[in-house]
Amino acid sequence: MDQSRIRNFSIIAHIDHGKSTLADRILQLTETVSEREMRDQLLDSMELERERGITIKAQAVRVQWKGHELNLIDTPGHVDFTYEVSRSLQACEGAVLVVDAAQGIEAQTLANAYLAIENDLEIVPVVNKIDLPSADPEGAASEVSELLGGSTEDVVRISAKTGVNVEQVLDAIVARIPAPAGESDAPARALVFDSSYDQYRGVIAFVRVVDGRLPTGAGLRAMAMGTDFDAEELGFMAPQRVPVEALEAGEVGYVVTGLKDVSRLRVGDTLTTRRAGAASPLPGYKDVKPMVFAGLFPTDSDDYPELRDALERLKLNDAALFYEPETSQALGFGFRCGFLGLLHMEIVRERLEREFDLDLLVTAPNVAYQVKEKNGEWVEVHNPADMPRDPEEVQEPYVRAQVIVPKDYVGAVMELCTERRGRFDHMEYLSETRVLLTYELPLGEIVYDFYDQLKSRTRGYASFDYDVAGFRDGELARVDVLVGGEQVDALSLIAHRDAAYERGKLLVERLREEIPRQMFDVPIQAAIGSRVIARETVKAKRKDVLAKCYGGDITRKRKLLEKQKKGKKRMKQVGGVEVPQEAFLAVLNLDGEKKR
Amino acid sequence: MSGVRHLYVHLPFCAHRCGYCDFVTAVGRVGEHGAYAEAIVGELERVRRRLAPDVETVFVGGGTPTFTEPAALRRVLAALPDADELTVEANPETVTPALAAVLREVGVTRVSVGAQSFDERLLEVLERVAGPDDVRRAVHTLRDAGFDNISLDLVYGIPGQSAADLEADLASALALEPEHLSCYELEAKPGTRFTHAHGAELARQAEAMEGYAEQVVETLTGAGYRWYETANFCRKADGERELRAQHNLAIWRGADYLGIGVGAVSTLGSERRRNAPSVGRYVTALAAGKDPPREVELLDEGTRAVELLMLGLRLDEPFAIDASGVAGVVDRDALDRLVDRGLVERRNGSVLLSPRGRLLGGAVTAELLA
Q1: What is the pLDDT of residue B139?
Q2: What is the ipTM score, two decimals?
Q3: Which residues of chain A, if any, have pLDDT below 70?
Q4: What is A371-461's CATH topology?
Q5: CB contact, 8 Å: B217 with chain A?
Q6: In this predicted structure, what is the pLDDT of residue A299?
Q7: Is A204 exposed, middle or buried (0-12, 13-18, 19+ CB in 10 A)?
Q8: CA gap A236, A240 in Å, rounded
Q9: Which of A120, A127, A461, A521 is at 20 to 30 A from A293, Cα to Cα?
């Protein structure tokens, strides 16, 4: 196909503003799928995605419209996957920005719009859900044109649900989004914007050919990773795989690589031919690093091999997932896992429990810390228990957070952000009633219950998005917990010095409730270094003996004793103290307790 | 094999089943008492060859043995082998001069009276038939008949019982100068009528009642009683007389014993038998000249060792771990920890729980098990 007749675009939107519904209508309207084949939100193929109404893995579908070839590149809609979104956008020349006519601009609308602008995309603004009784298409349109600096007349008003005006969106894509302008004769360069794993065919890369041509059977190389493979099959999605002889400059499609390991082909990498290949890759490749970490332990230690196998399999489809074995004296064998963010963590956990039927104990999440050691070297610490007690310097990740709220809640949001060590950046009125607040916040504060607090303090009206802004110095303290005088690794936490006392105190109070009384007093202490900051005592039991034991019921009494013994074995022995597994979850719910 | 020296006889009949009771009992059924007595005599004949020529102890328990219709009771008691200690359990309201005379006549040496409490209100909660005065009258009647070894059963931790109530119960019991006292914390078994009615109240009182066991021990030892088993006390140093319950003492020390009657349990070496609890099936089988229906549990060495440890640690005498053959089930590190914490004392190869260790005996034993 002549590049001038190709249009590559994404649809970007805040969650639930109708991105997937619009994609479905486009597939119907262009007769890419028949009515009979139509399934709502066809592109979101994973069960979990459908259930949560979010897109996790992006895909690309080719449709035909009035003599043009349109490639719709779906993007993951969440902050955790910003890098994937930005790679998807880089594969396009334009983006359709969908805004809910009743809700107006939300935090992810902004974040996505900024990403599109950064990638020099032509934006086609669309106001959706005009059929809703509460819709305010003009208000939403003026917010959008204000944001993008255009005229409200350029905003297409549609209902993706009923199909009203959807064809105007397609016409606008053809009319306004530029055709690709790569060099057809140059050495091949194709951007990998997504990949998936097929049990039989290995890694399948989704690519946008920028320059040159990729023919079937060609020997290819992923330039950043240095991975070589052959293009076993090339084609496009419609939405099932349709093989073609070659992918040309400007086209979007898939490459069957035969690779058995997704980590060898990363999103953002550039494919070229091994013979007469390109000299330099496309710009912008970034190795995404997990920022949020948590320990995953099987509730039943016998399930450890199953957990390991499950993580291996998940990793095949999720290159961003990181894991390494972790041994906790308290929780036994498990894995310390790294995630892009809290949602990513939730998704991984749910998939492990649902698809692999595992019962998991997940420790409180923490962020990655940069620690300068005595010898001057910087190391990254993923686990509070690994944090040196007296580091030279510690840095923690910060994010740039955007919160959009009705103006009545501005005070509540500012208060929350200040409590969480936020640095105010700026405030802007999006309309008479809605305000955009920008803060810099430590990511460690966000993983600690920030979403819930934000929701409850704004009655659910706030929308929130962030991107990682880099590491900054932090006044951080490692709080250790001692039970019966012995330190419990799985309960250590890292907190800002000002909050450490309060959190240590809450934690020991919770533990006092969770740890059953023993045959002796059990002191529970929270300490920073050697300084005890909080203390509670679980008082010793005064009596634990069965009153009656005669010839008639020795068997029953013995069984009770054996049960008592077994119950003890299920507990974790820490310094001679029996600690139930539930106690280790206490650290997860500290704020939950405070709220009550 | 020299034969079994300890015999238990179960007479299951009761006037009323108390809400908290979990023994094998049969309410009323007076017309069946005679047939049941015959069956008991029949089973006794069938097991007699396993008994030693010189049986040491016989214990007749229930139910309420003294509720058994007098001729039937007399039939059973007369058939029993001679023994140094012959104990019969009695409920206070059943103790009359006539009954006491029968018991004396057939050679009963010891009567265990189910007093439970001396508080009208608490006895009602327990659904006992007897009132406080019945208990006192029963003891006086037995004394008048010449009994010089009387035991009283007391229950503590009754819903609504305060520490002062308990003190009053203990004082009332001590005033009767019994040779022996058994004091049990009320066990509200899940699913029983009693737990249904009083469970919530008991849970609410649980913390307040935690000190009751200590209070019982302090009061009774203060009054000169020996705390010789977790729940049992006897008068000390009464000349030459041994006032511990010899039958139960033998079982706690791991001796074999034979049990006859419905629900009765025997432990014979590595075999434990339990007769089925149904009176009808029991009577029918023995009338047909057959063994009663029963289940058998085989005790391997480890299991029996656990039992011996569990039982031995209830006593106030040193328990010889090595000599008793239980070394294999004892965790030596746990023993060291318990010694460090002052819950267990070591005495040349034997162990003995400290007073606090005895109050925590269940947890201590569980900890000791390897």
Answers
A1: 97
A2: 0.92
A3: 35-58, 76-80, 569-570, 572, 575, 586-596
A4: Alpha-Beta Plaits (3.30.70)
A5: no
A6: 82
A7: buried
A8: 8
A9: A461
Beta bridge partners of B60: B9, B88
- In sequence order, the 6+-apart residues with CB closer than 8 A to the CB of A310 are A352, A355, A356, A358
- Evaluate the CA torsion angle A469, A473, A475, A476 in order and state its sign: positive
- The answer to whether the beta carbons of residues A126 and A150 sit under 8 Å apart is no
Give B 17-56 residues with CB within 8 A of chain A: 23
Instruction: Give per-residue pLDDT as tens, B337-351.
Output: 999 999 999 988 899
Residue A84 to chain B, least CA–CA distance (Å): 55
DSSP category for residue A570: H
Tally of domains within chain B:
2
What Å distances lie between residue B143 and B66, B96, B107, B206, B245, CA to CA? 17, 12, 15, 37, 18
- Which tokens is A108 given? 């992810």
pLDDT at residue B106, rounded to an integer? 93
Q: Is the pLDDT of residue B210 over 90?
A: no
B87-96: average pLDDT: 96
- Contact by Cβ (8 Å): A45, A24: no
Q: What is the pLDDT of residues A229-264, one digit of tens each?
A: 999 999 998 888 899 999 999 999 999 999 988 778
The pLDDT tens digits of the residues spanning A512-536 come to 988 889 989 999 999 998 899 999 9
Would you give the end-to-end CA distance of chain A in angstroms?
A: 63
Q: Kindly list the residues of chain A whose beta carbon comes within 8 Å of any beta carbon in chain B.
A: 518-520, 541-555, 557-558, 560-562, 564-565, 568, 576
State which amino acid sits at residue B283.
V
Per-residue HEC secondary structure of A507-535 comes to HHHHHHHHCCCCCCCEEEEEEECCEEEEE
DSSP B278: -
Per DSSP, the three-state class of B237 is coil
Report the gap between the CA of A538 and the closest CA in chain B (Å). Answer: 14
Structure tokens at A238: 């419609």
> What was the pLDDT predicted at B193?
82
Chain A residue with CA closest to B156: the answer is: A547
Give the Å distances, CA to CA, from B159 to A544, A548, B135, B163. Answer: 19, 19, 21, 12
H/E stretch holding A202: strand A202-211
Q: Among A124-133, B19-28, B133-142, B242-251, which stretch is predicted with the lowest mean pLDDT?
A: B19-28
Minimum CA–CA partner of B274 in chain A: A552
The string of DSSP letters for B148-164 reads --EEEEEEE--TT--HH
For residue A570, what pLDDT is reported? Answer: 65
3-state secondary structure of A235: strand
- Domain spanning A189-273, CATH class: mainly beta
DSSP annotation of A566: H
Q: Which amino acid is at B127?
A: E
The CATH number fitting domain A292-363, selected from 3.40.50.720, 1.10.1660.10, 3.30.70.870, 3.20.20.140: 3.30.70.870
Q: Please state, in angstroms and as integers, the Cα–Cα distance from residue B364 to each residue in A115, A121, B243, B354, following that order.
A: 65, 73, 28, 11
CATH domain A477-595 topology: Alpha-Beta Plaits (3.30.70)
If we measure between CA atoms, which residue out of B186, B185, B179 comes closest to residue B228? B179
